[in-house]
Amino acid sequence: MKVIVLQDTLRGGGTERQSIQLAKALCNDGIDTQLWVGYAGSALDSLAQETLASSLNFCSRRKSWALPATLLKLRSTTATIVCMGRWAHYVGALLPTKKSRKLIATIRTSRPLPRLYLSCIRKADHLIANSEWAINYTRKLIPQDRLPEASVVYNELSRPGLFKIDAEAKKEARSSFNVPEGKKILLNVSRFSKGKGQADLVEMMQHRPAENRQLWLVGDGPEKTSAQMLSDQLGLREKIRFFDFTEDLEPFFASADIFVSASQLDSFPNAMLEAQAAGLPVVAYPTAGIPELLQADVTGLLAKSKTPEALYEQIASLEQSPARMTRFGMDARKRVLEHFSGGQQEAKFCRIIESLQSGDWLTLNGT
């Protein structure tokens, strides 16, 4: 039994991190697994090398050669191929069908799906989504008779150290960032790209601004410069701090009071999962699979509309009740601990692959 997890490049996003984590979990489950990456040179390369060692394979050192090089290497393989991300599904769509080779498509986004991506899903032996919403979204795009059997496997927490953040750790982290006593820190961790919503978060800070509140935006990406320019145009630089991408996120989660998200892209965002593991209440737009992760009025609040004003209203409402904030944070951490950690979701993924390779389709229904 051999598995190839296919990923374009290892940027700092949630899908890339999940690809690394999945490959490791499959290896630990005794499955001969490799992570094949289209091209090298991205932020998580070193993490993948440290985590997977010889199980990591870069198909090309140049982006322009990644697709043809990968297709050439995969043509003769009989391994089960797991496509993670848009580029990987293009590869899956272009590979010739082979009876001895299984193909697993995944959907982890609410972005419009290109024709090649949909083609890969239609020819796949199984579809795995990271939210119920994503399954239903795909059903609207592909006729039922062309859709493969599908399962939901939620993201697995990749930073279990977040469970250890306590009052002392928060105090130490806030001191290291020179956060004044009484200052409320709103945190967002995400790649700066269209649809991730950082511009909405910046605009949110101009509504009834208060001196005791500051927004921290952590990450890199093509939309970061425009978000910084918008912050300057609105005169909000004193209320917004921009931080570069980093693997060391624990101090940011420890310093924060509320995690905020205006994303309209994420099917099941990793950073929101991590925030809840850190004991933070969450305020977010009610988009895609986010309501499956954030339990409204239990672990956080969903904005009543997808506008900066609605987001801000929920934040202000939450801040007015410190006891409610604490309860939400405790319940959020408990939920992540019970459902999204300890290898539970990864074990589901492993069972699906094993069942698919053995032809024991009946076991898939319980995953």
Give an account of the 3D structure.
- The chain is an alpha/beta fold.
- The chain contains 15 helices and 13 strands.
- The strands form 2 sheets. It has a 7-stranded parallel sheet with strand order 3-2-1-4-5-6-7, with helices on both faces.
- Helix 1 runs parallel beside helix 2 and helix 8 runs parallel beside helix 9 (224-233).
- It is elongated.
- The two termini are 20 Å apart.
- The model is unreliable at 362-367 (pLDDT under 50).
Shape: elongated
Number of strands: 13
Radius of gyration: 21 Å
Helix content: 40-55%
Distance between the termini: 20 Å
Average pLDDT works out at: 91
* Uncertain runs: 362-367
Report the sheet-strand fraction: 15-25%
Q: What order do the helices and strands follow?
A: EHEHEHEHEHEHEHEHEHEHEHEHEHHH
**What about the largest sheet?**
7 strands, parallel
Strand order of the largest sheet: 3-2-1-4-5-6-7
Query: Which structural class do the helices and strands define?
Result: alpha/beta
Number of helices: 15
